[in-house]
């Protein structure tokens, strides 16, 4: 167990690391050449087209284009922090969307919850714990850390001082619930306000319908038209079919790859006009006959273009390529709200309607999964997630047993002389077993995302939320419980199955105070240094410069080479929730942990505010749809903390206090249920009151709006409009042939469909799984 | 433990009891005087007005009016059984409603499930168990019952024969799931078909809205009108306010009581015209001055009538008597379906809309409970139910300790000489402690019903379902688990909390085979004899004859004296589910129990079919809304049986088979989830496809229908129309004054509101709790 000095050293190291990252960031972001890495958001929204030089000076020379020579700007290297705070929340919502603004509110919520809790805990509980001083007497026999003197471990069993801890547990619970309630209320209000003040958007009028039954002799389009004309006679407007464009998307990706190679070779030729680049036609360009690269790729692309064209025609014409799903549009928000919230068909597995996600947010591939399949998939994935959470160590241990030095020597005997060198050997022996685990942890989010995709959710936002949920379970079991109770998750599961339900919180509860130092270190490494590395954006920086060097020719290429990224919800949400859990659990037990959490929340808030303002470009806008999950996980943390405190106190023989504590989890569950029914509908359903108010407002302001034209190809697969606008028109015509009864539209009045940036935004990974 | 002979004796006694009941029933039901007790249904639907004499003979004398003298009819005393089976299911639905028909299907489902299971289990498992013969060797030391030789206890640990049991567990699970799926499918179809083929009903067009916000300066009626005219502009028709008629209802009940006394005295006078009956005006008629009874009650009633009139006027006029709830009617089923399924307001706790139950089904009292209060009530009631289930023995033990002989002697010393007589003493000692328990069990359903009422459900049908759920938990814990594991439920809870989760099914599983004989006896006493006593209707018989003797004057009075009752869902559903549980649990363990269950299902089916056809008059029609609960409880039984089998086999050291069995509960849960999403929407929501189809059909058949007039006072509190039709018209006029914007209706085209029998049907217990 670490003493206070050890913690101090660790804190010093981590603060140093964090500062190093911040310093590097401060230096790098001022270089004009990195401007597109650290400020891509401004390029995307179009307010910046070329790097602004750091200071007020307008001097520009060839060096100044790449390196910032204005020394004054280096002096204020931390000024991004106040800058990040300048933007008001309403500006932020306009600038980056509600999702990002609400995401930042989670950190603020952490501060709001933990600042009073920390003060109270430090002022009341630490003196109580210290004054008791059981551990001073024990010191000679046991190695007791200084941290423990400040924790509940220092209070002797049966002490009357536990009343302080119990009353604090009540006060903290009430405070946390109050803050959570206020915040939920606020976020729900912000969501409704945002929806109400939004521009007209296609998804407000559109409903996605799945599991359209195939009727012999009728096309899917005809069925959809007939069904909605019958059942929503005064509200149905038109619909768009969904094409199975798997193969087409594959070709498009091939074309993109070829295009990159062509660019690369043309650039090479431009730089060295004396020598035309050549390539080999065989496998991976390693064998075969030598040909001129530019001609070769140009020809290949032409071939591909004809194939793409024919495939596109086939996809649009072939009735089998139309999937049993459609986007159904209504002539009012009211009509769409009604259709999304009601049951359409006698058979509840057919004609499933739901709000259409906005086009950017759609995960097209999952539109065609039938009902039975979804239910089987969910079963399989939940078993798989359970197995992954509890048994992930088994395959890793297996790989580790293979990847030891003996195994390596057998596979590659020629490496033996190298391996036998002592330094290398000891390095490898320390390194190899960890490698499998590192790789696993690195690919885990991807694996979880694939699992969510298999489950069949329609929107990227939902996929991310579901992935976040899975990741949270993993962290809860393997990071939180796994650190507290020794042994692998599987061993824990085994021992929990053989313990009584009242014994489990006791086992965990007893270990909690002992692990405080570990978690303090964890918070500093993962939280402080991790967040500082987030702002540095090392990976996008390297990739941008590589792309810039090899394939960027035009400004448009440069724009494409930018990778603004977005708030990585599947990873950040579970991490955040883990910190909430740690803070709430340790608030009563070892209050000295709280300041570390506070620093994390404050620092992360600054960093993410900067990133949201300057870097991230959200791929979609889910209008804070993730909030119910954030809320319920914090409530779950509260519940867990109460159970563990109950277990801990029961071992402290504060038995007469136990009944008092039992009331807490019951009240917490009730609070959760109440909030769920009070606020959750605002995140799941669109109230008719709102819908009709917006309809009426629009009708009076734009009485001649041609909604049909506005909605015409909003939900066309993005693949079909990836390149030229010419093609788009063509597709539009095709679509109208497919949609039988749509009258010819008057283009006069039609507002143009919403414009999204060409590359970011769309979810291309159509057949990637 | 009982031997096979003991079981035989018990069976003989119970069969004898059942036959005695049946014989008594056969004799009593043939007497014309009892006709209204055993065939009230026919009087209510109006197809019978006076008793038909048993045989073909039309001879009637004064004796023949009361006693059946046709000896031939006595010979065929069991012919009600084939008679009960004659009616086809579609006739039954027409005759008694879908609820009753589907209720009978539960018994049929029991037969369908258990006939093949019984045959298979007896043919395969019994020989396997017998052939093993472990227990023969043990016989000398232990007392082993013959039943145990046929059960799984007879198979020695680690035997390969457990494969038979495991494969049977799989086959039974698959068969049960298959039957459940088919049945759910069928019932869902029947429900939709019934809804589609139904006559026009007011609840198809009506939605109940709760938590109407009070706006200063506007009445509730104005708010409702404004809100729905804005948000459902093309569909809203009109609404009916809900009056707080608590006090009024109380007066009405007083009047009814007085009326009974008046009738009683008038009848007395008629029979003895020489002596006018007198009564005393004081407390309970025991003291005070003597007055003429008929005059006294007539005068009292007149006084009350004026008070009732003024109270009625006050209720209708006073704006404070209007509750923040309303029945909102739409001009089409589509409009009502949309409103019931969507969210209306930004604040999800206001303007809560839901399908209106049919007027007969409404529990008026709960209409005014606000949202927060409901959520608090639910918390309190769930804690109360938990306490009731696990700690109900504590108050009973307390009462028992008071109600022993010593206590009695102290309270009433003058009883001492009587108590000291030995026979009486031993009788009392055996009787008194059980008395408290008996009384508790008798009032338990009422207590649970009150709890459900406190929870705030709107419809009587829902109240009954929720009561059934609570009763089921009570039976599961106290009858099923309580019989298997010794000790009170509280002791069980305590020991379960201190056992590991894997140990619990083992503890219970081991005891299961040993309790088979107990449950066989239980089935015979509670099932066989209990059902036979159901058909005898002893309580209604006695009450009817008492009423007939003292207060019945006119035919209408006689009609009122009939108490047809209805299927008592809160008690029969949990009982049924307990039998399903027993059958499924013992199918693999002790198959010899199954024939007893089969007899129960077959016999109960016959009895209830007879009762449904001839006796019961349902108070409401919920269109089989209870089926999802029946289904899910049978699935839960399956799940419990699998866990217990797992526990049992793990003690038998058939350890290598355990993993195979783990798959079963997982698949069962999945099956449950699948069925829930596949079928449950049909029971919760009204598909728009159905709604609009019915709208269109009606429009073409009755284009001039005046819907507004049809709906005008459908949801008037039944209290307001309890007596004379004259009053009804008056109220109707009042209502129109209250509902500001309703245009004067043309009565020309108005179809009359649906006619329900005057007394049964309505739920009068307005302020009874």
Automatic annotation (TrEMBL), chains A, B:
Record keywords, A-Z: Ion channel, Ion transport, Membrane, Transmembrane, Transmembrane helix, Transport
GO molecular function, one term: calcium-activated cation channel activity
Pfam families reported for this sequence: PHM7_cyt, RSN1_7TM, RSN1_TM
Membrane topology type: Multi-pass membrane protein
Ranges for domain CSC1/OSCA1-like cytosolic: 204-366
Domain of life: Eukaryota
Subcellular location: Membrane
Transmembrane segments: 12-30, 106-128, 162-181, 379-398, 431-450, 471-490, 578-608, 629-649
Ranges where the CSC1/OSCA1-like N-terminal transmembrane domain occurs: 7-183
Residues of the CSC1/OSCA1-like 7TM region domain: 377-649
InterPro entries cross-referenced by the UniProt entry: Csc1-like, CSC1/OSCA1-like_7TM, CSC1/OSCA1-like_cyt, CSC1/OSCA1-like_N
GO cellular component, as recorded: plasma membrane
Family per record: Belongs to the CSC1 (TC 1.A.17) family.
Name of the protein this chain belongs to: Csc1-like protein
Species this chain originates from: Thalictrum thalictroides
């Amino acid at each position: 167990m670490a003493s206070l000095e050890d913690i101090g050293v660790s804190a010093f190291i981590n603060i140093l690391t964090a500062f190093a990252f911040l310093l590097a960031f401060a230096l790098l972001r001022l270089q004009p050449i990195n401007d597109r890495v650290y400020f891509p958001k401004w390029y995307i929204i179009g307010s910046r087209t070329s790097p602004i030089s750091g200071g007020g000076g307008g001097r520009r020379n060839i060096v100044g284009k790449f390196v910032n020579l204005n020394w004054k700007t280096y002096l204020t290297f931390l000024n991004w922090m106040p800058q990040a705070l300048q933007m008001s929340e309403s500006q932020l919502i306009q600038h980056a969307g509600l999702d990002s603004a609400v995401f930042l509110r989670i950190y603020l919520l952490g501060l709001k919850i933990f600042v009073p809790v920390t003060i109270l805990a430090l002022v009341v509980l630490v003196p109580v714990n210290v004054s008791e001083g059981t551990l001073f007497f024990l010191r000679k026999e046991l190695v007791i850390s200084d941290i423990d003197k400040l924790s509940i471990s220092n209070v002797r069993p049966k002490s009357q001082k536990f009343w302080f801890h119990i009353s604090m547990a009540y006060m903290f619970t009430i405070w946390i619930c109050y803050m959570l309630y206020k915040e939920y209320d606020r976020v729900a209000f912000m969501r409704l306000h945002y929806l109400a003040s939004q521009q007209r958007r296609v998804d407000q009028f559109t409903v996605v319908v799945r599991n359209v039954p195939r009727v012999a002799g009728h096309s899917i389009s005809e069925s959809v038209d007939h069904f909605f004309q019958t059942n929503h006679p005064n509200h149905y407007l038109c619909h768009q079919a969904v094409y199975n464009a798997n193969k087409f998307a594959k070709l498009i990706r091939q074309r993109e790859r070829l295009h990159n190679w062509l660019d690369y070779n043309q650039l090479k030729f431009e730089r060295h006009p004396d020598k035309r680049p050549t390539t080999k036609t065989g496998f991976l360009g390693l064998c075969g006959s030598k040909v001129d690269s530019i001609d070769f790729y140009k020809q290949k692309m032409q071939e591909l273009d004809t194939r793409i064209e024919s495939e596109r025609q086939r996809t649009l014409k072939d009735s089998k390529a139309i999937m049993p799903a459609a986007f159904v549009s209504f002539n009012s928000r009211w009509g769409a709200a009604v259709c999304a919230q009601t049951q359409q068909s006698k058979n509840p597995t057919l004609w499933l309607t739901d709000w259409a996600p906005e086009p950017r947010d759609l995960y097209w591939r999952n539109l065609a999964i039938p009902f039975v399949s979804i239910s089987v998939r969910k079963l399989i994935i939940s078993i798989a997630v359970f197995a992954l959470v509890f048994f992930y160590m088994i395959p890793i241990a297996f790989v580790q047993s293979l990847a030891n030095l003996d195994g390596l020597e057998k596979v590659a005997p020629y490496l033996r002389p190298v391996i036998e060198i002592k330094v290398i050997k000891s390095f490898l022996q320390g390194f190899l077993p960890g490698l499998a685990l590192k790789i696993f942890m690195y690919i885990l989010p991807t694996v979880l995302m694939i699992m969510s995709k298999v489950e069949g959710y329609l929107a990227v936002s939902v996929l991310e939320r579901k992935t976040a949920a899975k990741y949270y379970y993993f962290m809860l079991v393997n990071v939180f419980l796994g650190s507290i109770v020794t042994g692998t998750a599987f061993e824990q599961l085994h021992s929990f199955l053989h313990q009584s339900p009242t014994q489990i919180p006791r086992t965990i509860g007893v270990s909690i105070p002992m692990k405080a130092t570990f978690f303090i270190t964890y918070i500093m490494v993962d939280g402080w240094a991790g967040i500082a590395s987030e702002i540095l954006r090392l990976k996008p920086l390297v990739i941008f410069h590589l792309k810039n060097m090899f394939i960027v020719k035009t400004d448009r290429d440069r724009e494409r080479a930018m990778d603004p990224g977005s708030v990585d919800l599947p990873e950040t949400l579970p991490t955040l929730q883990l910190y909430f859990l740690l803070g709430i659990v340790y608030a009563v037990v070892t209050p000295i942990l709280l300041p570390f959490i506070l620093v994390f929340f404050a620092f992360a808030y600054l960093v993410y505010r900067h990133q949201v303002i300057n870097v991230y470009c959200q791929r979609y806008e889910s209008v804070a749809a993730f909030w119910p999950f954030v809320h319920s996980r914090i409530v779950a943390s509260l519940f867990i903390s109460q159970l563990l405190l109950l277990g801990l106190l029961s071992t402290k023989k504060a038995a007469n206090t136990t009944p008092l504590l039992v009331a807490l989890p019951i009240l917490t569950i009730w609070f959760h249920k109440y909030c769920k029914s009070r606020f959750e509908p605002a995140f799941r359903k669109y109230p008719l009151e709102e819908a009709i108010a917006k309809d009426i407002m629009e009708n009076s302001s734009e009485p001649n709006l041609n909604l049909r034209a506005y909605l015409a190809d909003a939900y066309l697969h993005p693949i079909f409009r990836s390149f030229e606008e010419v093609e788009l028109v063509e597709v539009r015509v095709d679509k109208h042939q497919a949609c039988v009864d749509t009258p010819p539209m008057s283009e006069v009045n039609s507002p143009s469909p919403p414009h999204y940036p060409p590359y970011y935004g769309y979810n291309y990974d159509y057949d990637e799984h």
